[in-house]
Amino acid sequence: MRILLDKFTKNFGDLTVIDEMDLEVHDGEMVALLGGSGCGKSTTLFAICGIHKVNGGRILFGDRDVTNITSQERNVGVVFQSFALYPHMDVAHNIGFPLKLRKETSTEIQRKVDEIAEMVHIGPLLKRRPGELSGGQQQRVALARALIRRPDVLLLDEPLANLDATLRLEMRSEIRRIQRETGITAVLVTHDQVEAMSMCDRIAIMDAGKILQITEPSDMYNNPVSDYVAGFLGSPPISFLTGIIQNGSFIEPATGAKIPVRKAIAGSHAGREVRVGIRPEYYQPDKGVMIKGTVSMIEAQGRETLYVVTLPDGNILRSIQGSHSPVKIGDAVNWGIDAEHMLVFDKDGLLI
Predict the structure, then answer these.
(1) Among 84, 192, 212, 274, which one is least packed by beta carbons within 10 Å?
(2) 142 near 117, Cβ under 8 Å?
C-alpha cells in the first residue's frame, strides 16, 4: 500500500511544525523518519495514523484519500515505544484483542493468534501475562497485535528505545524480517541512525519540520546533501575541518597540510572558505595526506578501536582501526586523510 503525503501541513495553535511536506512511501517499502527531538518525525507519524488532524494537504493510502477519516477506518497497525500491553490479559488475549473488537469468532481469533505468534516466534508464551515477559518478548507481542488485523500500513514509533543493546540488535533484524515476509508498507520513527540504516530501504532525514534528504542509506552516507546530514549518519561520527581552497587543495589551517580536491571544486571555490568532512575509516596510519596531531582518547570497541586525534588548533579527527595500534594517549601521530573520500561543503553547509 503506497503512502502519499501531499503538501502535508500541521499546526499546533499558532505554531506551524510541518509546512507543506511531500513524502511518498512505496508499496512494500520500509522508510525511516530520522532526526533529533522536535524535528517533526513523530508528528508526521501520528498524522499518518490519524491521531493528529491535518491542517493542510492530503494523506493518501494507495489512491484512497484518508485525510479526514478516523484511525479505525484507516486500517493501520501501530507499535509504540511503551508496548502498551494490557497487564491483566495473557499474551493470546492481548494479541487477539483487535479481532475481538471486530467481533470475529473465538475460533477464528485463536487461529489467527496462533498463526501470527508463530511468525514472531512467541508461540510458547501465549498463556503468560506481560509482566512475566522480557522486554524483547513484550515487543514481539506488541508487533503481533499490530499485525494480526492485517493492516495496510505498519507504523513504528521508536519501537526499540526501551530495549537493551543486545535486544535492540535482535529486534532490528526480526522486525525487518517480518516486514519483508508480510510485504507490508512500514514507516519507522527513530532518532537512532543505526536503526534507520540497518532496517530501512530509505531514510528521510528531518529537521525543523522539513525533509532535508530522502534516499537509500548507503547513498545518504556517501553523498549527504549537507554537513547536517553528514553529521547525523555514521558511528563514530564524521569530523569537520574548516579551511581555504588554494591551488587545487584544501589547506588544513592547523598544520598547513594540502589535501587535493576535485578540479571542479578547485575551480569554483578557489580562495573560498569551505568545510570538509572526514569519516573515521578514511583517517588512517600510512595512508593519504599526512596530518600531525596528538592522541587524546582511545576507546576499545571489541574488534575495532577508536582513536581521537587532537590537532594543534584544538580541532579533532577520529580514526577507527581494525587492529590495535601501539600508540598511547599523549603520543604524537602523523596519520593520513584519504582525499578521495573527503566530503567538501560550502559556507552554507551544502555538499559541493
Answers:
(1) 84
(2) no
209 and 262 belong to one structural domain: no
Burial label for 318, CB within 10 Å (0-12, 13-18, 19+), is buried
At 268, give phi and psi (nearest 5°). Answer: -80, -20
198, 299, 253: which is closest to 309 by C-alpha?
299
User: 59 in the Ramachandran plot: left (φ > 0), alpha (ψ -120 to 50) or beta?
Assistant: beta
Span 197-224, pLDDT tens digits: 999 999 999 999 999 999 999 999 999 9
Q: Within 10 Å of residue 320's Cβ, how many Cβ atoms?
A: 19
pTM listed for this prediction: 0.89
Among 206, 232, 258, give the residue marking a domain's end: 232
Element (H, E) at 227: helix 227-232
For the chain, what is the domain count?
Answer: 2
Residue 168: strand, helix, or coil? helix
Q: Are strands 30-34 and 185-190 parallel, antiparallel or unpaired?
A: parallel
- Residue type at position 135: G
Torsion of CA 285, 290, 291, 293, to 10 degrees: 40
Please give the full DSSP string across 72-124, using - where no structure is assigned: HHHTEEEE-TT----TTS-HHHHHHHHHHHTT--HHHHHHHHHHHHHHTT-GG
Cα separation, 335 vs 235, whole angstroms: 20
Determine, yes or no, domain membership for 351: no
Whether 352 is in a domain gets the answer no
CATH code of residue 331: 2.40.50.140
| CA separation for the pair 252, 246 (Å, rounded) | 11
Position 163 confidence tier, pLDDT thresholds 50, 70, 90: confident
pLDDT at 337 over 90: yes
User: Amino acid identity, residue 140?
Assistant: R
Distance CA 254, CA 19 (A): 42
List all residues 6 or more positions away from 97 whose beta carbon is below 8 Å from its beta carbon. 86, 89, 145
Range of the domain at 33: 3-232
Cell of 142: 506488541
Q: How many CA atoms lie within 13 A of 329 on its CB side?
A: 6
